[in-house]
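ARCHIVE CARD
Drawer: 12
Card no.: 0347
Subject: one protein chain, sequence and derived structure
Cross-reference: see card 0346
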Amino acid sequence: MGKINTWSKESRIIATLAVFAIAIGTVWFLRGVLGPLVMAALFAFVLNPAVEFLERKTKLKHGGAVAVIYFAALLLVSAVPAILTPVMINQIQDLELDLAGLVELYETNLDAPYVIGNWIFTPGQFLPDLPAVSTDLFTPLAEATLKAVEI
């Protein structure tokens, strides 16, 4: 029998590091494609039980069952935003009206004098000006929300 070649410890470490470097480089090079591939794999994984059920209960072949289930899923995914968008717009408009009423109530009570014992004070002495606070608070929040929706 011949002699078995074994790698030295240093050679194995260098080879392992080279394989890891190539793997990381490949992932980095394909990073733009990996997101959609992962989404497609998850989509297929989630819909596979429905495809198998349809195959068992009907005489459809696998390709036909996949087409039916994927078309139904596409309809569902596109219908949900179409149904929810008007509801969300109405709720946002109602919230805007409620907030406007609250700001008006706040501003009217801000200058009203209150008497406690011998002291007279107005809340405006202690509380901030709400329009300035709301602008400072809600403008960055709205911008961040819009950036999140754009993605």
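Annotation on reverse: DSSP finds four helices and two strands in the chain. The longest helix spans residues 62-110.
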